[in-house]
Specification:
Blueprint lengths: L1 H13 L9 H12 L1 H13 L8 H37 L28 E7 L5 E7 L7 E7 L13 H9 L3 E5 L11 H15 L1 H4 L1 E11 L1 H12 L5 E7 L5 H6 L9 H9 L7 H6 L13 E6 L8 H12 L4 E6 L13 H18 L1
Parallel strand pairs: 3-4, 3-5, 5-6, 6-7, 7-8
Antiparallel strand pairs: 1-2, 2-4
Helix pairs in contact: 1-3, 1-4, 3-4, 4-13, 6-8
Length: 376
């Protein structure tokens, strides 16, 4: 009986690989289930091995366990299938790829790796001090290659009101090792500061590096913006409104592209009060400041001159619906802007926490592929 109960619990957890979480802690569990699938699959195999057919409830437990095992492993199979066409699809979207030999979008052996740290040794720098006394810092990851190199400016998530430049440093280190300078920036946070303050901060960071280009070996003709969640909205808006030709591309992970429409479809309140989060950042409800919601919606500013855009969004995202990516992709198609949406059917918000999980592997490859194409 105990075996059956444990296997039923595992089956319920495995459903998070195909269904959207309905509460905050289930969302966090969904990240674990989908991006660390071998741990859960291994636990299921252990329980299955304790008995198959003999004894009361053994047959039922075995059936439940096999279903759970299949669901736990499904993100791996899906990521493999996507990986088979990923390079071809991205080449069709952006052109010739300039990756080093041996770079693959999927490797089963990588599932056994773990790395969540800064492995190149970043430096914390002050990049701007405003008249009101606000001082902003960034973490700089120097390119592990000689000469002046392009710079990726990374904008953290956190609902515009929290988070910092220390988030997910593993990807920053990875990009630095592949030859890119990386600057993970802090920006002015809501509710004290509201839109468009963070976009101004991105502009200040770029100005800082133009002033110190020789010191940090930066090719200031080649910047790429990368943002996650709220940071993706900031990165997209900066890329589409600053009209800076040195911004060669923008990468957005699960970000809101249409703030007007996004306000009309609030998130599950058991996970996040999205309208309050948006109101704190924009400066009021949509009824109070409709123009500001329009003005901070990247979707409305995408045009023929916009830089190439890489979108990475999971279908099971419960904080920022993947329909933002659908809408942005449609707009970019209409405006003839080079773009690609890496669509991950099993993934939820924050899936890239594990660089070597099913979604983490594909997104890391897509980022490296995109960078090599737009910066050459």
């Amino acid at each position: 009986m105990i075996r059956l109960i444990i296997l039923i619990i595992l089956l319920l957890l495995s459903l998070l690989s195909v269904m959207r979480a309905q509460a905050y802690y289930l969302w966090l569990m969904a990240i674990a289930v989908t991006e660390f699938p071998l741990i859960f699959a291994g636990g299921t195999i252990v329980m299955l091995s304790t008995g198959f057919w003999a004894g009361k409830y053994q047959w039922a437990g075995t059936l439940v366990g096999f279903i759970a095992l299949i669901l736990f492993l499904s993100p791996i199979l899906r990521s493999y299938l996507i990986s088979r066409r990923l390079e071809k699809d991205m080449r069709a979207a952006f052109g010739q790829v300039y990756l080093k030999n041996g770079v693959e979008p999927f490797s089963f052996s990588k599932f056994f790796r773990l790395n969540f740290k800064d492995t190149v040794g970043s430096k914390t720098l002050t990049y701007v001090t405003y008249n009101d006394g606000a001082t902003l810092k960034l973490d700089f990851f120097p390119a592990q290659a000689a000469g002046k190199r392009p710079c990726v400016i990374v904008v953290h998530g956190g609902s515009w009101s929290s988070g910092d430049s220390k988030q997910l440093a593993n990807l920053n280190s990875y990009m630095a090792k592949t030859g890119y300078n990386v600057a993970a920036v802090n920006y002015r946070l809501a509710p004290k500061y509201q839109t468009p303050a963070p976009v101004e901060d991105i502009k200040s960071a770029m100005s800082f590096f133009r002033t110190h280009a020789d010191e940090f070996h930066i090719d200031t003709s080649q910047f790429v913006l990368l943002g996650r969640s709220a940071g993706a909205q900031i990165a997209l808006l900066a890329a589409y409104t600053l009209h800076d030709k040195s911004i060669k591309g923008v990468i957005e992970f699960y970000g809101p592209a249409d703030m007007v429409w996004g306000y009309s479809i609030p998130s599950n309140p058991l996970i996040m009060d999205s309208r309050k989060v948006m109101g704190d950042y924009v400066g009021g409800t949509y009824a109070q400041v409709p123009q500001k919601y329009h003005d901070c919606s990247p979707l409305f500013f995408a045009g023929p001159a916009s830089p190439p855009t890489l979108m990475i969004h999971g279908v099971n995202d419960v904080l920022v619906t993947y329909l933002h990516a659908v809408k942005l992709s449609t707009k970019l198609e209409e405006e003839h802007v080079k773009h690609y949406w890496l669509r991950l059917p099993w993934a939820t918000h924050g899936f890239d926490f594990n660089l070597y999980g099913p979604g983490g592997q594909l997104s890391t490859y897509a980022v490296e592929n995109f960078l090599s194409t737009v910066t050459k």
